[in-house]
Amino acid sequence: MQRKNRILTGDRPTGQLHLGHYVGTLKNRVHLQDEYDCFFIVADLQVLTDHLENHSSIEGNVFEVMCDYLGVGLEPENTFFVQSQVPELAELTMYFSFLVTLTCLQRNPTVKDEAKTYGVTNISYGFLGYPISQAADILAFKADLIPVGQDQLPHIEQTREIVRSFNRVFNKEIFALPEPLVGEVPILVGTDGTNKMSKSLDNFVAFAHSPEETERRILNMVTDRKRAYRKDPGHPDECFAFKYWSIFAPTDTLVVRQECETATRGCKECKAQLAQKLNEHLAEIRNRRQCYASQPDFVWDILATGTKRARAVANETLMEVREAMKISFPKLGDLKGGR
Ligand code: TRP
After folding, report:
1. What's the confidence (pLDDT) of residue 53?
2. Which pLDDT value is given to residue 337?
3. Which atom belonging to ligand 1 lies closest to the Cα atom of 155?
4. I need a surface site. Which of 38, 140, 207, 273 has the fewest CB within 10 A?
5. How far is CA 167 from each of CA 77, 90, 124, 156, 325, rounded to the nearest angstrom?
6. Phi first, then psi: what are they for 207, rounded to 5°?
7. Cα distance between residue 57 and residue 73, in whole Å
8. Residue 278: phi, psi to the nearest 5?
9. Tell me, what's the pLDDT at 112?
């Protein structure tokens, strides 16, 4: 039987996931999970790229991300795993590192942006090189499809470069080219109406937020900058709240547009209604999230099972890789032991 095609994707455990992640990629993952054999990586090592001195909450954040995943509807039967607990990934990163030039890493726009955002001027070898480790995350599982947010595209391109050079240099078609998949709203503007929704800018609505907190955040949202008074007609196409309507409650947009353009609806009531819609939309996710969050042993168990499976699969790939690179040393026998 032919194996199902594989998905590998994941997130850094830096805190709770939010609506930007949802429309950017989580929704795709939920829809595709039955069709694909899915591996979800909780990328704890990647957190160390820029949070090295502020990493005390990794374990708690791994748990939060897992609750978000399960809450949005990813089934526990998928393979969820913790990056640091699959040492094969570190090994593969090392091997791939010989195939990538420094100039290529220095050109990666996402790495450059992150270095700027986090104020890292003296960039470490590991930070600059994390796209290589991400390629290892993907290729250790020979994944076919990578559903990610738009900011991750340079890393997938880097992965494809590595596939090409690995297969050429070692003269073996071990890896196929993985394809990225970005969600229907690649960039969701946050509640400040200016920047991409992100935790660090505090312009986000998280799955873990309460309905009240969601309402507070939506009510603070910037709307139509051209509409000075309640009696002025609004400009839905230039309004951030309207953008949210069209994403999260598209069937209501006709009415909202009409009432806005005729000034029969004010921005405040519009946002209050929007918050209510969002809360309805999120209720199921939040209930499910809460249900998992109250069973931590079960959640850790899902990760333990997934991490074992991930190791077994990565180990198979690594055997092929070592052989292709002529560093498998069968004469030394079975050196297993340790971990
Ligand atoms: N870079 C991703 C993020 O910042 C996390 C990640 C690590 C990842 N390894 C991956 C995503 C492999 C897709 C595939 O959220």
Report:
1. 73
2. 67
3. 1
4. 273
5. 33, 20, 28, 17, 11
6. -60, -30
7. 25
8. -60, -45
9. 93
Q: What distance in angstroms lies between residue 191's CA and the mean position of ligand 1's atoms? A: 25
Stretches in the chain below the pLDDT threshold 50:
none
Q: Kindly report the backbone phi and psi dihedral angles of residue 145, in degrees, each rounded to the nearest multiple of 5, phi listed first.
A: -130, 135
Amino acid at 45: L
Q: For residue 1, what pLDDT is reported?
A: 64
Q: Judge contact between 203 and 216, C-beta under 8 A.
A: no
Specify the ligand 1 atom closest to the Cα of 46: 7
Helix (H), strand (E), coil (C) string for 217-249: HHHCCCCECCCCCCCCCCCHHHEHHHHHHHHHC
C-alpha of residue 303 to centroid of ligand 1, in Å = 17
Q: State the pLDDT at residue 236.
A: 96
Give the span between the Cα atoms of 155 and 18, in whole angstroms. Answer: 22
Residue nearest to atom 14 of ligand 1 (CA): 9
pLDDT at 116: 87
How far is the centre of ligand 1, averaged over its atoms, from the C-alpha of 338 (Å)?
A: 28
Q: What is the pLDDT of residues 40-86, one digit of tens each?
A: 999 999 999 877 777 778 999 999 999 999 999 999 999 999 999 99
Domain limits, the chain? 6-188+295-332, 211-291
pLDDT per position as a tens digit, 131-163: 999 999 999 999 999 999 999 999 999 999 999
* Pocket around ligand 1 at a 6 A CB cut-off: 8-12, 41, 43, 46, 134, 137-138, 146, 148, 152
CATH 1.10.240.10 fits 211-291, yes or no: yes
Which of 79, 110, 148, 196 is the best mutation target for the ligand 1 pocket, counting ligand atoms within 8 Å of the beta carbon and taking the most? 148
